[in-house]
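fwd from M.: "can u put these together and see what the complex looks like"

so here's what she sent:
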Amino acid sequence: MSISKAKVRFIDGLKFIGTADSGHDVVMDGPVAHGGTDSAATPMELVLIGLGGCTGMDAISILRKKKQPVEGFEMNISGTRAEAHPTRYTDVEIEFVVKGKGVDESAVKRAVDLSMEKYCSVKATLEQHAEVSFSYRLEE
Amino acid sequence: MSISKAKVRFIDGLKFIGTADSGHDVVMDGPVAHGGTDSAATPMELVLIGLGGCTGMDAISILRKKKQPVEGFEMNISGTRAEAHPTRYTDVEIEFVVKGKGVDESAVKRAVDLSMEKYCSVKATLEQHAEVSFSYRLEE
C-alpha cells in the first residue's frame, strides 16, 4: 500500500493549480459559460488525458523492450458522459495508433493487452469502486 | 449524453502530451526510476488533481452564490493505492480548507456536501464503474 498526495489551490474565477508528489504544477480552468476563462484543461479532461498517459507509458515501455521500430504512437480517446448530474464518464474508448515500418502486430496487441488487463492503474481506477471521503475546516 | 474527446501523443522517453476538447495541452512524464525524466506530473497524479479541481470548482461557485467572504481555498488530497498491479486508487480523502473571516460554516458544509453528493463528476467517475474498451491499428 502506498499513499499519493496532492494539494489543489484556488487561484481566481474557476482557476485552480494542483501539485502532487512529483512537485509539478497542473493548472485547470473551466469554460467561460460556467464562469471560467478557458485558460487550461478542465478536471474531467485531465481524467481522460491521464488515462491515455497511463496506458501509453505501459505500452511504449513494453514495445521498447520488444525492440519494435516505433516511429509514432498516439491514442484517440472518447469518453461518454452521463446526462444528469453528476456527469461522470460511463464508457471510455481508446484507439491506439502505432506508426512504424516493420512493427509487429502481435507485439502491439501484446503491449496493449498487458496494459489494459494488468498494469494501467488509471484504467483500473475508472473501472473499480474507489471510496472518496471528505472533511473540511475553516481558517480565519 | 455527451462525448468528450482527447488525443494523447507520445513524445519521447515516457513523455506524453494530451489535448482534449478545450484545446489546452497537458504534459505528463514518469519518474526516472521507470525510464522517464520527471519533467511533468504523472497520469495518476492528474487523476487526484482533477478530483480536486472538479470539486473545488463546484464548491467555490456555490460559496460565491452564497456571497461568502472567501479569502483562500485549498484541498489536501490523499489517495491510497493498491499494492499489486494495477496500483489503482482504492480510497481517496479530501480535506477542504476554507479561509476568510466571517465565512459561515453552514455555507461551507452545504457547498462541500452539494459537490460531493450531487455535482462532482470526477468523484462519481471514481466511485462508479466506467467501461473502458479499446482497439488498435498500425500505420506505416
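replying to her w this: Residues 42-140 of chain A form a domain with the GMP Synthetase; Chain A, domain 3 fold (CATH 3.30.300.20).
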